[in-house]
TrEMBL record:
UniProt keyword Translocase present: no
Name assigned to this protein: Abc transporter
Domain ABC transmembrane type-1: 3-284
Coarse class of the protein's main subcellular location: membrane
Biological classification of the source: Bacteria, Bacillati, Bacillota, Bacilli, Lactobacillales
Keywords attached to this entry: ATP-binding, Cell membrane, Membrane, Nucleotide-binding, Transmembrane, Transmembrane helix, Transport
ABC transporter domain mapped to chain residues: 317-551
Source organism (scientific name): Lentilactobacillus sunkii DSM 19904
Domain of life of the organism encoding this protein: Bacteria
């Protein structure tokens, strides 16, 4: 379709090259007009003009539509790629700026493909074709025109350079602006409660100002371009008329040829202008693609390997002599843990010890640096990542509630659609039924961005219900009940325990009451596992654990 669109514009270019010739003949063969053949000539010119208009329109449409398709493709590819990049990538990149790649940079590409490329292809054709015709018409006039046109380049090339420089700056500022806007709006509560509106707006104003100044630069350039172009055109036309007029007077050139030269000149200005800025348009598109390419060149998480079978799910999960660092920041040093299936296992230790990190590694959000992660005897990397992550459902410390309804959140990421009984069951387990029955729209209640319309405890219980519905072999509760009072925590844990008899539960908890009955407790401190055992065993052998327990009792 793109090629066809370009073919159409080539045909219309060809028509535009032929038309002045026909006009020239019409002027020079005055006899034809006197013989009333003029109507025929007018009809030919008219129908050629109409044909050229229609064909140009068709060509424009086809090419633009391919541009639209391209931008849709690019955006889809970038977003899909982004979603499969390793977790660490997102630790070091701002989401608003990434969004700007998907939205703003992609649109520059569209412009390049659907405007710049076709315009320049037909421009080249136009310039070459016209020059060919002009040489056959009158060599001297052609040489004159050829001397005049570099003037256009003299003006347009420096302008192109300015456009190139500022358009890259403009993309950067635009992405900063996107980031500031989305971040401040998403975090409107912390902004208000930290009285940070002024600071946030100051940053916003700065980016807006930068963007404004860049736009003014563009305005300066573009406001000068047109008048100067007109000036240059007038000068060239006057030269052509002066020289050509003299030639017509002394009979070495026909009036028709002079007129056709003038028409050709008009037709050439736009193509020549667009050729003159092609290089800077190209650089601008390259600037945008570079940023997109940087993202696209980062390898995505590898999702090849075996699918975990129901029988393999019953094997223990093992971390063996594992080392792990976030970049340079070492967090785990030679840790070994074993999670037997269908057991209740707890990880305890002071804040910042690395408990969540153990979960991050276990779920393969981050790859380990050294050591082994195994399911039974098989290394984790042998299994498909997506299959591996389906072993787990997790309630985290972080808010993982999305905008939409309570039901949307319950079904988030579920492959199967649970029936109402199952949903009610999950809500009961999570101790959420009575809360929902008080809401005007029940389970269809819209919870707002990140669940702002729910209480902290409700958000956690909603996550627990979601986790329960997932029916995965392993349930991970990372401080999952920290926002709950101890009564409702106890309720939830008892019902969870009762209902997840045949499932593994890994819980990280501050509160002692939630872990004392675990089959196995790991105590993490100072980047290491200090000891493991049951509550009683640890009390007996690990003074750090004893201190931890005593502090809790206090
Ligand atoms: P815990 O869950 O035991 O409170 P974490 O495992 O969350 O502790 O964190 C352990 C250490 O790792 C902390 O010092 C923390 O600053 C660091 N950390 C956690 N997440 C990241 C990350 N994404 N990038 C860099 N450092 C991190
Ligand atoms: Mg943690």
């Amino acid at each position: 379709m793109f090629v066809m669109g370009i073919l159409f514009s080539l045909i219309s270019t060809l028509l535009n090259i032929v038309l002045p010739l026909i006009i020239r003949n019409a002027i020079d063969m005055r006899k034809l007009i006197e013989n009333k053949m003029g109507i025929q000539v007018l009809l030919t010119i008219g129908s050629l003009l109409i044909a050229s208009t229609l064909i140009t329109a068709m060509g424009n449409f086809l090419v633009s539509r391919e541009g639209d398709r391209l931008i849709a493709d690019v955006r889809t590819k970038v977003q899909t790629h982004l979603m499969h990049l390793p977790t660490s990538f997102f630790d070091n990149n701002l989401s608003g700026q990434l969004a700007s790649r998907v939205i703003n940079d992609a649109s520059i590409l569209k412009n390049f493909v659907s405007v710049t490329i076709p315009a320049n292809i037909s421009s080249m054709f136009m310039v070459i074709g016209t020059l060919f015709v002009l040489v056959t018409l009158d060599l001297k006039m052609t040489i004159l025109i050829c001397f005049c046109f570099p003037l256009v380049f003299l003006i347009m090339v420096p302008i192109g350079k300015i456009i190139e420089r500022y358009s890259i700056k403009s993309q950067t500022e635009l992405s900063n602006l996107t980031e500031t806007t989305t971040e401040s709006l998403r975090n409107i509560r912390p902004v208000k409660l930290n009285h940070a509106e002024k600071g946030v707006l100051a940053r916003f104003y700065r980016y807006i100002q930068n963007l404004y100044h860049i736009s003014v630069k563009f305005d300066e350039v573009f406001s000068i371009t047109n008048p100067i172009q007109t000036l240059v055109s007038y000068s060239i036309i006057l030269t052509l008329i002066l020289y050509g007029g003299a030639r017509v007077t002394n009979g070495t050139m026909t009036l028709g040829t002079l007129v056709s030269f003038l028409i050709y000149f008009f037709q050439l200005t736009n193509p020549i202008n667009s050729l003159a800025v092609f290089y800077s348009d190209y650089k601008q598109a390259i600037g945008a693609t570079q940023k997109i390419n940087e993202i696209m060149s980062i390898p995505t998480e590898d999702d090849n390997g075996l699918v975990i079978s129901g029988r393999q799910e019953q094997n223990p999960l093992i971390l063996k002599n594992v080392y792990f660092a976030y970049g340079q920041h070492e967090v785990l040093r030679n840790v070994s843990l074993r999670f037997e299936q269908q057991k209740k296992i707890a990880i305890v230790g002071p804040s910042g010890a690395g408990k969540t990190t153990i979960i991050n590694i276990l779920t393969r959000l981050y790859p380990i640096d050294k050591g082994e992660l195994l399911l039974g005897k098989t290394p984790a990397y042998k299994y498909k990542l997506s299959s591996w992550r389906k072993l787990f459902s997790i309630v985290t410390q972080e808010n993982s509630i999305l905008s939409g309804s309570i039901k949307d959140n319950l079904l988030f990421g579920l492959d199967t659609k649970p029936n109402n009984t199952e949903i009610n069951h999950a809500l009961n387990v999570a101790n959420l039924s009575s809360d929902i029955s008080l809401m005007p729209r029940g389970i269809s209640t819209i919870v707002g961005e990140q669940g702002v319309k729910l209480s902290g405890g409700q958000r956690q219980r909603l996550q627990i219900a979601r986790t329960y519905l997932k029916q995965t072999p392993v349930i991970i509760l990372d401080e999952a009940t920290s926002s709950l009072d101890s009564d409702s925590e106890k309720n939830i844990l008892t019902s969870l325990e009762r209902l997840s008899k045949d499932r593994t539960v890994i819980s990280i908890a501050h509160r002692l009451s939630t872990i004392v009955h675990s089959d196995l407790i790991y105590f993490v401190d100072d980047h290491r596992i200090l000891a493991c055992g049951t509550h009683k065993e640890l009390l007996a052998k690990l003074p750090e654990y004893k201190r931890f327990v005593n502090e809790q009792k206090l």
